[in-house]
Amino acid sequence: MESTKKHFFSDMGVMLGRSMRHITRSMDTIITVTIMPIALMLLFVYVIGGAIQSGTDNYVNYLLPGILLMAIANSIGYVSFRLFTDVQRGIFDRFHSMPIARSAALWGHVLTSLVSNAISIVVIILVALIMGFSSSAGILSWLAVAGILALFTLTLAWIAVIAGISAKSVDGATVVAYPIHFLPLISSAFVPTETMPSGIRTFAENQPVTPIVEAIRAFLSGQPVGSDIWVALAWCVGILLVAYFFAMRVYKKRV
Questions:
Q1: 3-class DSSP assignment, residue 154
Q2: Residue 127 or residue 171, greater confidence
């Protein structure tokens, strides 16, 4: 046990490498996580953007934070699917027969989501720059944006862990991604919440994605962030802690 704890980070690195190799061999994952958000950004900017009153001359500046969050949300179904597959094939049972940390396999999948989403986000931002995106943010603001996106990724990844190791079928494992996909759509990611009907506006202004989008948008535009950053952090940290707690409980019972 002492040896297992001592080598936790090396075990986690091995699991990360294993899971990353699965990602690079999965073309549908690459298309869903990177190509689809870029296609959506092109659609909104060049087809729909002219009809949307966002209060800015450059709609891609307004749109980009929401596209980044959608890219992360798109990846969550793959986290739960890969975990479900490992459980069903008895991979975790094999790992537990080896002298490795029990939670290293879970962290391998979670960190894979973090790394793969970081690569996707960089690609999306590069495409946005070609489309005319501009930012007056300094290095600290960009680091803050990176931190928020990483925290959002970890939060969703641990939610996906719960689904992946507790589901009875593939559909049950991946269904967790569906409601998460809708959150950026019913938020301030694409249009100001002021343009929405009262009931939808109330929901949009009191769900996690809107303060995250507003905080990222403020950082990228060099504007004061205000209370949005604290609300965003409270949502992410609160959900992350709850999801991690339940994920570990389910993991111990199931595996």
A1: helix
A2: 127
Instruction: Round to whole Å and give the CA distance between 47 and 69.
Output: 21
Q: Is the dihedral of CA 211, 212, 217, 223 positive or negative?
A: positive
- Helix 177-185 × helix 209-221 angle, to 10°: 50
Residue carrying the six token digits 């928020």: 148
User: Quick one: the chain helix, strand, coil %, rounded to 5?
Assistant: 80, 0, 20
The band of 3, judged by pLDDT with boundaries at 50, 70 and 90, is: very low
With H, G, I as helix, E, B as strand and everything else as coil, classify residue 53.
coil
Q: For residue 74, what is the enclosing H or E element?
A: helix 59-88
Cα–Cα dist 148/232, whole Å: 8
Taking the model in full, what pTM does it have?
Answer: 0.86
- Dihedral (Cα; 78, 80, 81, 84), 10-degree rounding: 160
Is the CB of residue 143 less than 8 Å from the CB of residue 99?
A: no
* 54 SS3 class: coil
Say which residue the tokens 């969703």 belong to. Answer: 156
Give 231 or 226, the one with higher predicted confidence. 231
- Which value, to the nearest 10 degrees, does the dihedral of the CA atoms of residues 31, 35, 37, 38 take? 180
Residue ranges per domain, the chain? 2-254
- With CA atoms as reference, report the closest residue to 248 among 108, 153, 107: 107
How many residues in total does the chain contain? 255
